[in-house]
Amino acid sequence: MNNNSAENIEQIRSITREQFDTLYHISRTLNSVAVEDILIEESLDLIINVLNAERGLFVKYNEQKDSFEIIAARNIEKENIEDLSAFSSGVLKRVIETSQPCLFHDVQSDPNISQFESIQIHNIKSILGVPIFRDNKVWGVLLIDSRSNRKEFTEENLVFLDFFSNLVSLALDKIIRYQELQNENTILRNQLQASKKIPQLIGDSPVMQNMVSLIHKVAATDATVLLLGESGTGKEIVANAIHSLSRRNAKPYLAQFCGSIPDTLLESELFGYKKGAFTGASTDKKGLFEVANSGTFFLDEIADISMALQAKLLRVLQNKEIIRLGDTQVIKVDVRVVAATNKDLKLLTKESKFREDLFYRLNVFPIRVPPLRERRGDIPLLTKHFIKQFSPDKEIFISSQVLRLLEDYNWPGNVRQLENVLHRALILCDSDKLMPEHVLFEEATEDINFSGTLREFEKILLQKRLKEFEGNRTATARSLGVSVRWVQLKIKEMGEDTANV
Questions:
Q1: What is the pLDDT of residues 175-184, one digit of tens each?
Q2: DSSP letters spanning 259-281
Q3: pTM of the prediction?
Q4: Which residues on neighbouring strands pair with residue 225, listed in sequence order?
């Protein structure tokens, strides 16, 4: 038997029965399938207890930055300690420099240690520190300290702590590899979700792919979502998709259109009422927020609600509570809110037409639903989808002229307008082939009955498109199927009144 083996056996004999049982328990913890933070904390609690210490610290050392990161830090009351400065950085660095276990059972009288500020501030008297190795380098440090029992920490305690550090060192590869696999799994799952299509949302264009990725990300949370976009873009479909992909998908999903509804009627629908609250209120009635409890509530055209209702909605978002009309009792509700608008809420807040505090409560995670003109590449897919929907039993051939006509149109009414145009086209179509003559757009009367010159028509159309795109010449050119230079030349040719639309 060599000297090292004999020395190790002698060290093992110096460990008490309680310490040995603790090491056995910790070894099982570190060899479990998944070593979580809570398990590291539990191990630290056991060490503090068996050594009669007051605090314990487990840190990772960053050699490049010469800094420490807390893995776990606990006190004798089994509470977490978040502040690394509460421990002696000088002792931590001493362990790193020597790569050896350190024992200080009377640090106040040790001139090499007592000058450290943290030791003086926290009146620390005894410290045990051991290095934790990985790949023959110091990976971290385990530190135990106390403000009393200055003779409690002994060489035998140091042996016990050293054995623990060896256990951690052996388990580190498995722990780190497991965490890396977890991270890889999370990344792959996110990538898979980002590429996974949502059946209700038709389209493969880049803007749609980006929106689908955002939907997957926010659906996994309980964050309030604000859907922004023009009328007819499909905001209600996005809201439904967010609910379907969320953990609330087995709970209720309710939707309420807020535009053009009298205040009293909308308030009673949203919050319910107490019997006798108003004429005709013969019984108590639950509001939609109560009915949607634990689920998702979609509020469409949120910009149209009155300031009084905005205040009540703010209460729902802030405090998760409602009060029925005619009642004084507060009712707690757990509802995920998805709101939508086709208006500029930020501008409305500046004009004092929408509460700023409510805007920020709603605008936690905004998603812009793109207009159809920004996703023209999706028009063939949408066309086939709607034709199949309106004519499930008959195969309809779509001519290339029809697709070109649909792709060239500006679609002010977006997907809803495309759906209506195709429905009308199928009614007009007497054969199994859809032709351009079957496709009718809702144009303004001045465009249809225009009797002026081509130059005059060009000017009217260009002015109209510039106004529609808020003066954006690139977007205007794209909608007209011409170059930006053509638009610039026409503006110059037609004068300043066109440029300043």
A1: 677 667 766 7
A2: TT--HHHHHHHHHEE-TTSSTT-
A3: 0.56
A4: 338, 365
